[in-house]
Amino acid sequence: MSLELHDITLTYPDGDGRLTALDQVTLAVPAGTLTALVGPSGSGKSSLLAVAATLVTPDSGTVAVDGVTTTGLSRGELAALRRRSIGTVFQQPNLLPSLTAVEQLQVMAHLDGRSPTAARPRALELLAAVGLADLAGRRPHQLSGGQRQRVNIARALVNDPKVLLVDEPTSALDHERGAAVLDLITRLTHRQATATVLVTHDRTHLTTADRFVEVHDGRLTAGVPVAGG
């Protein structure tokens, strides 16, 4: 397993009490598979993704990323783990407007202490993998919404993460472009052997996943295969 959450409980302050966002959640995502999380707004999907990304520390339970248990790690150690082992695709690409597509990827290598120049071949390889080989020199304003999201996906993969966390990647795209982006995420999951978790409200996206898990009131319903699994 590349991602394991065991018996996770997460609460937030709520007036004089506590609001339970996740209630004894256990989830294991093997390498090279895509698990879709579905459920209504407020069900706990985003909280689960934040815990998996080590951005939020749960009240109890354990998170393991590529065999590394995060309990007891310092802030610096968690930041290093995120840089090297976790890729995140946000709803909005949030690309840096002054950088070209390839530079968006190179800067991630720089943040990890590696030479942007040395990272350029890998960056170009990933842009080719997402169908943007001819647009590596364009800046965000010269790209369509779907193309910007593809750069976002490539950027998340530039450090070869073991875990890929994807939050509603098609919310700003039409159906055709959204379907293409999800197909791309599925193919890259298998090719890069990442443990991928995809949060979505759209059940038509489930055909791209290896299984889906329902989230309701902070609890999970057992996942089942949906695409030939």
TrEMBL record:
It comes from the Bacteria. PROSITE patterns: ABC_TRANSPORTER_1 (PS00211), ABC_TRANSPORTER_2 (PS50893). GO terms for molecular function: ATP binding; ATP hydrolysis activity; transmembrane transporter activity. Keywords: ATP-binding, Nucleotide-binding, Transport. The lineage of its organism: Bacteria, Bacillati, Actinomycetota, Actinomycetes, Pseudonocardiales. Transmembrane segments: none annotated. This is ABC-type transporter, ATPase subunit. It comes from Saccharothrix espanaensis (strain ATCC 51144 / DSM 44229 / JCM 9112 / NBRC 15066 / NRRL 15764). It holds the Pfam family ABC_tran. GO terms for cellular component: plasma membrane. InterPro entries: AAA+_ATPase, ABC_transporter-like_ATP-bd, ABC_transporter-like_CS, ABC_transpr_LolD-like, MacB-like_ATP-bd, P-loop_NTPase. Residues 3-226 form the ABC transporter domain.
